[in-house]
Structures are given as C-alpha cells and as structure tokens.
Amino acid sequence: MTLQPVLPGELAAVVTYLEMRSRPRPQPIETVPFRLQRWNNPERERYRTLFRRIGAPWLWCSRLMMADEALDAIICDPANEIYALVDLRGIEVGILELDFRVSGRCELAFFGLIPDLTGKGLGRWLMQQALIMAWRKGVELVHVHSCTLDHPAAIGFYLRAGFIPVRFAVETFADPRLIGVLPEDCAPQIPLVRPDSR
Questions:
Q1: Residues in contact with 10: Cβ distance below 8 Å, sequence separation at least 6, in sequence order
Q2: Topology of domain 31-143, per CATH?
Q3: What's the rounded Cα separation, in Å, for the pair 195 and 198?
C-alpha cells in the first residue's frame, strides 16, 4: 500500500463509477409538492447559479471553471437534458441533468438538491423521475459517478437505486476555494490546505 502525496492547494477524491444495465422495476411514485421544469438552452449564469447553490457544499466546481463557450456547448446541446426541480413558489431547489450524447447510453451527469432538502426522501422521488426519463428507447446503459467529496450518503443512495459499482479512479484538482471559484467558507468538512501551509 502506498500513499500518493497531493500538492498543497489541491484536493484529491476517490471517484466511484456506477452503472445500471437494465431498466429497474416500476415502483409506486409518491406525490410531492415539486415539479421538474425542462431547461432548453438555459442561460449560462442561471445554470451556474443553481449548480453553485446545490453543489457548493460538496465543492462541485467543474461547470463553474469551464470557459463560457465550452459550458454553452454542453448545456445547450439538445442531447443533454437539464431539469430544474421547482417548488410551489417557483424556486429552483434541485437539478437533474441527463446526458444522452453517447449513443445507447445515458449519464446521470448531475443530480442534487439544495442542502435544506437533503435527507427528507425527495431524492428518491427525483431518482424515480430520472430513471423513468433515462430508460428510453435505445438506451442500454445508465451510469453515474460520485466521489468522496460528495454527500456521505451518495454512494449508498445510488446502490439502493439499483446502480452497481464498476471501477474507481483518483482525481486531483486545484481547490476551488483557493482559486476564487467558490468562497473559502464552502464545505467546511473538507480541510483547506494552502500552498504556503508547510
């Protein structure tokens, strides 16, 4: 067993890749006071705002660090479907992003709720909706990945939904709190190691 050093100012995460190779059995769907709203060609900053509201506690930063043109190419691609979870007041409180850009596959690219709604059962409803929409004609594989920086219950949640783990990877990247992508007080559960801390 070896330890690989991570440079000060960077983070490391173990990524778990999970797959589902057959459509799950239908389950009774609860009634919830929320609805999914499809975002066709979403405005870039509106998308980033929702992405930040949901992902900042877990240091989601990939879409925040992308060049505008690169982000637009993804979020405005008709094969990449983005849904906002909206409450009764019309406030966006969750995201579901289904990527069909690879033939025969659907990637659950982003899936999440604002922190106030996690752990209340709404994620199960959102996953049911995700799987209903993902398993459309021609799809043979639905996949998702999570990492050790995500909510501690994320992997267990995906396993209960029917995904199976297929591989691991280690990802290192600049800490988004140190490069100005996210505020330094985000994700206090993840230590902030400055480059000059040694």
A1: 172, 173, 174, 175
A2: Aminopeptidase (3.40.630)
A3: 7
120-144 pLDDT, tens per residue?
Answer: 889 999 999 999 999 999 999 999 9
User: Is the Cβ–Cβ distance between 20 and 165 less than 8 Å?
Assistant: no
Note the pLDDT of residue 147: 96
Sheet holding 10-20, edge to edge: 34-39, 80-87, 92-99, 105-113, 141-147, 10-20, 164-174
Overall pTM > 0.70:
yes
- For the chain, the structural domain boundaries read 31-143
**Number of other residues whose CB lies within 10 A of the CB of residue 136:** 11
